[in-house]
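Render this sequence as a predicted structure.
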Amino acid sequence: MKELIRAAFVIARRDFSATVLSRTFLLFLLGPFFPLLMIAVFGAATAPMSATERPTVGVIAPAGEFQQIDQARNRLQDTFGAISIVNLQRVEPTSEPQQATRVLQSAKPGFIAVLDGGLRNPRLVGSVSAQSGTAKQLRLFIAEARRSSGASHPVHLPVLLTSPSPTAPNTGAQALTARGGQSLLFLLTILLAGMLLSQLIEEKSNKVIEVLAAAVPVDAIFLGKLLAMLAASLAGIAIWAGAPNGLGALPPPAVGWPMFAVLGVVYFAMSYLLLGAIFLGIGAHASSAREVQTLSMPVTMAQVVIFAIASIAVGAPDSSRALAAAIFPLSSPYVMIARAGELADLWPHVIAVVWQLLWVALFLRVASNIFRKNVLKSGPVRRKKAKMARA
């Protein structure tokens, strides 16, 4: 095992140096312009924020008063648009003095904030600031409700900052962050994993890979190539990350931006290794660029379907469909990065990474076996036929 890892790192160092120190790496760094454009188009076309994914505010008020606020919201919805307006849900008032905090901290229904005090003395409790879009919208709702009832005095809405329950998904507020993480992870993986195919086909045509196979184990070659291209991709991502970005415009993820960035790198590595191992198997089976395109197209289309399935889990990270998508290895990184945007617990991510590493090892073993049988002609059946021929 030690020799295998040592040989893999030798191959990885060789391929990494050949990739990063080449002139084409500068063109490779222009790659983000294409995924960013695709994110904008793909996100606008296939993943608009539905009504169930908008931020939901609980309103502690009697039925009549809540109806006034809700009717004001509906009137303003035509002005601001259905997507940008927050949802309102009535909560039956009780005599409990800290009811708003208790409702916010409960596991269900996952409010971003709670409005209490009615129309006379409103107060907002939640993880929003006084200048946030949610607070501004609620001021407009209250002002419109007061105007319709004949009162027109200014709205004073104090905001008490309180974090919601860490075990409850923040429905809507962080769905945009979850979808953005999924889309970026998917597009970077698809864009960068294909580099393995062209490199493997080039070395097969030059007979370089057969020379390497005579010196080191095939498993070490495949693992080294996978690690080298992953390191080159991470180097490019590190350079891209230094460019100005719009993360400040997104709602903060449940685990916080630093941990979300760490998990994003981890799940990109897992997604890249999983898809890269499959592409290595395709490259080992194919003998020309035409065969590579023919064989890789179904895998790429399957990844689009897998990404669409994983996107369904946004907004319901603990649902049965989300858990099923998290167990399936190819969709697991997309589901888990979205979960990091919506839930703060970290232990599921440890289990997910271990599970994905097991499948990476399995895919690499299958790809190396395909390479032995189809290129080196060294499978057990071939050796048996060779012995029979010599006899």
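Summary. The CA atoms of residues 313 and 322 lie 5 Å apart. The domain at 55-161 is CATH 3.40.190 (D-Maltodextrin-Binding Protein; domain 2).
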